[in-house]
Amino acid sequence: MKQQTSGIHHVTAFVRHAQATVDFYSGILGLRLVKKTINFDAPEVYHLYFGNEAGSPGTIITFFPWATSRQGRIGGGQVGITTYVVPVGAFEFWKARLEKLNIPVTVTTRFGEQYIQAADPDGLQLEIVEREEGALSQWSFGGVPADKAIKGFGGAVLYSTAPEKTAAVLEQVMGLERIGQEGDFTRFKATGDLGNLIDVNITAMAHGVGGAGTVHHIAWRAKDDEDHAIWRRRVEESGQHPTPVIDRQYFNAIYFREEGGILFEIATDPPGFARDEPAETMGEQLMLPEWLEEHRDQIVQGLPPIEVRVLEADGQ
Predict the structure, then answer these.
(1) Rounded-to-integer distance, Cα 158 and Cα 218, Å
(2) Starting at the edge strand that comes first in sequence, how are the strands of the sheet with 152-159 ordered?
(3) Domains and CATH numbers, the chain
(4) How many H-runs (helices) and E-runs (strands) does the chain carry?
């Protein structure tokens, strides 16, 4: 049986300001802050995870907020747009909400679907589309009721410097199906019902520049550690160069940069974000891996305080 990923596990991006990021993704978009930890390789920097009520794979966007980061430039070798999916009937709610909160929006059409396109405070490009697929979120916050809440990822738009090579990896390695072409994009579909539709530019793009407002990597789902090991062999046998398996506490990961310049990760669904704190209170406390606990006081002193708060426009 052909190995296929069910879609996106998570997306990780660079931003500048931690509180502004919390205010946007929790306050405006209504996502749950499911994990507050640090960059294991740079403990002076937060690693913040936002998703649905459980932080389920396919819903998770993560950030490294670095106040002194340079401004990035979105381009080839990056995820150009991260797509969120909302319930059918929620499109006008989201358009009105973003406009009310002074977020400039553009409405566009691609592959017969309407998208609301906007940017976060650092310029990260996002879009919202409504679809039947995907379980409804059980999370409500501020001005976002559960029946209008973001379900998770709809997919992503990949900007490649070598589109046919990126397409080959998506089809031949990750197991996505090429399902259409329209205008400047080819569309691929994974087997899952979230994070499953991926659009890739047809014409090669010039390289982007990493920094605030850009995506660092896109992660694809592996069912478990056994599946993950098979994925690593598969990637290596395809001529790519995967890293060793890395323990990220909440999933295991391998990384490789495909020939279109985009950093791919494959991450395991388990163990998930409730492994080190109760599911009911996830995201409220700073969680550190065991090897950094002895430095907790020093780490906390170096991090700016943040809070999840209801926006004034939503009646705070």
Answers:
(1) 9
(2) 106-110, 113-119, 125-130, 78-86, 152-159, 197-201, 185-189, 177-182
(3) 8-314 (3.10.180.10)
(4) 5, 16
Predicted confidence (pLDDT) per residue in 154-172, tens digit? 999 999 999 999 999 999 9
What is the Cα–Cα distance from 305 to 86, expressed in whole angstroms?
Answer: 31
**Nearest Cα to 143, choosing from 103, 83, 100, 88?**
100
CA–CA gap between residue 11 and residue 216 (Å, rounded) = 8
Distance CA 256, CA 288 (A): 26
* Displacement of CA 176 from its chain's centroid (Å): 18
pLDDT, tens digit, 9 for 90 and up, residues 55-109:
999 999 999 999 999 999 999 999 999 999 999 999 999 999 999 999 999 999 9
112 in the Ramachandran plot: left (φ > 0), alpha (ψ -120 to 50) or beta?
Answer: left
Amino acid making up residue 204: A
Say which amino acid occupies 36.
K
Instruction: Kindly give the pairing relationship between strand 251-257 and strand 106-110.
Output: unpaired
Residue matched to tokens 């990923």: 5
Whole-number Å distance between alpha carbons of 298 and 303: 9
Please check whether residue 278 is in contact with residue 263, taking contact to mean a CB–CB distance below 8 angstroms: no
35 alpha carbon, distance to own chain's centre: 14
Q: How far is CA 218 from the centre of its chain?
A: 7
SS3 138: coil
Measured CA to CA in angstroms, residue 167 lies from 19, 111, 230, 274 at distances of: 37, 18, 21, 35
